[in-house]
Design brief:
Layout (H helix, E strand, L loop, with lengths): L5 H6 L9 E5 H9 L13 E3 L12 E4 L3 E8 L5 H5 L3 H4 L1 E3 L5 E3 L3 E7 L9 E4 L12
Parallel strand pairs: 1-2
Antiparallel strand pairs: 1-7, 3-4, 3-8, 4-7, 5-6
Length: 141
């Protein structure tokens, strides 16, 4: 399957679609709420909201087993865009941060591809299968 996101289609419509599923950690919603930016699950376009799982620390290729049969492979970080500001002014900037090395830290969740489909319900356990080492850090996709 090839890319579907408008900006990526404009650049190269033949590239693979690495952005089939968007996952966000509920802890981000909590932090945004403390900043006065009320955001609920699904508001930022995420398909799955997790809690207690450090999505941003997962390596590229980590596989998440969701529910009884679904498997999603993590492909990279979501690169927040100005569409977030159309929903809540200031939201895009609130999902970005500067690290100690002045590098940009993207906090708007991760993207993945579906390897095995299946029914996923609220409250389902998520099991993480890590790829073989060396692990590669997540880059924006």
């Amino acid at each position: 399957m090839t890319v579907r996101h408008r900006s990526r289609v404009a650049r190269d419509p033949s590239q693979p679609n690495l952005r089939q599923v968007h996952l966000i950690h509920a802890e981000l919603h909590d932090a945004l709420g403390l900043q006065g930016l009320a955001v609920s699950p699904g508001d930022m376009g995420e398909n799955i909201t997790t809690r207690g799982l450090d999505l941003l620390a997962l390596p590229t290729g980590a596989r998440l087993r969701l529910g009884a049969s679904a498997v999603v492979e993590i492909t990279g970080l979501r690169n927040p865009c100005s569409q977030l500001d159309a929903f809540r002014p200031g939201l895009m900037q609130a999902t970005l941060e500067r690290g100690s090395d002045d590098g940009l830290i993207r906090k708007a969740g991760v993207m993945g591809v579906v390897l095995v489909d299946g029914l996923v319900r609220s409250g389902d356990i998520i099991v993480v299968d890590l790829p073989e080492e060396p692990h590669r850090r997540l880059d924006p996709v």
